Amino acid sequence: MKIIALIEKGKDGTFGIYTPNIKTTIIGEGNTVAEAKADFENSVKEMIDSYEEEKLPTELSGMTFEYKFDIASLFDYFDWINVSKVASKLGINASLLRQYRQGNTYISEKQAAKIEAGIHSLAKELASISLL
Question: Alpha helices, DSSP H only, in the chain?
Answer without folding.
Answer: 33-49, 71-77, 83-90, 94-102, 109-127
